[in-house]
Each structure stands twice: as structure tokens, then as C-alpha cells.
Amino acid sequence: MAKRSKKQLVNELIREFRTCANEDAAFENLAAEQLVVSESDLRCINIVENTGGLTAGELAVRSGLSGGAITGVIDRLERAGLAGRVFEPADRRRVRVQVTAAFEARAERIWGPLAADWHSTLSRAFTPEELERITDFLRAATEIARRHADRLREAPDRSDRLAASAPTGSSAASRHRPAAIP
Description:
- The chain is mostly helical and 182 residues long.
- The protein has a single domain (7-153), classed as Arc Repressor Mutant, subunit A (Orthogonal Bundle), CATH 1.10.10.10.
- The chain contains eight helices and two strands.
- The chain has helices at 6-35, 39-51, 56-63, 67-79, 101-125, 128-154, 159-165, 172-176, and strands at 83-88, 91-99.
- A two-stranded antiparallel sheet has the order 1-2.
- Strand 1 and strand 2 (91-99) form a beta hairpin.
- Helix 1 crosses helix 2 (39-51).
């Protein structure tokens, strides 16, 4: 097999990363159905769980949703018994959103088998050093995604102009994607 260039390898990595993200999104959609919440609400509860709890404002920034939308998300998650508002002991004016024990129990049934499969498969396939490099990659990919989410937050909305300028039979978004991304 001919040695591939760094650019070819990066393009393949991007393609595989996006494929993995799409598979993960499909799983998350099914998990949302199991929890009887919207996909957006599930994404928010995942952020809350991964951070160990955060304020509504922090959740808004991390999720890309407005403050008003986050209030609705938190209200729905509280009604479902999956998250709750908890006052911070040092400053009772400050409220954190945290997952509940009920969420953790339901999450274990949904994600527990997946986590076990990840541990088993990745432990067999990679050395500890390789796992460290993969983790480095994921941190870098996360930082790139955050930078570009910030870029889009700060940019004026150009969707109408892009859609109007798209040639018939093509999408403006596909014209602007890197060539390696299908």
C-alpha cells in the first residue's frame, strides 16, 4: 500500500470522525426516545452530567442555546425528574443544574452497556500510550469545534444569502465544506 500524505490522513480522520459523530447522534436520538425527552434536552443533560453540574448561563453557552431556551430545557428536565436546580451553599443566589439519581439510574441502563463495550474494545485494540494520543486528538477536535461555534455565534446570519446564491441542485453548505467531508 502506498504511503498516504498527511493531508490524506487528516481528510480520512475527519471523515471517520464525522461518521462516528453521526452514529453517536443516531444512538443519542434513540436514547432521547427512551428517556422521553427531546434531542436538544438530552444534549443539555449530557452537558450537565459531563461537567458535574453548571449554571443555566454556562449551560446556555456550552449548548449554543439562548438563556430563554435553557430555562425551558431545565424546566422540562426537572418535570421529567432527570435534573434539578440546586442552590450553591456559598451564594444562595447562584443556582446550579445537576442530574438526579433517577437520571443516573436510567442512564446506566442506556449507556452502561455502551461504556462496557467501549472499555472492552478499546482496551484490546490500543496501548495506554495510543489511548493518550486518541484523547489528545479528541481534546483538540473539541477545541476546534468550540472555536468555530464561537465564530458562528459572533458572525451575522448569512443563511438567507447563502441559500439564495446556491446553484440549482446543490446546497450552499456542501459548497463550503472541506473537500474531504462528504
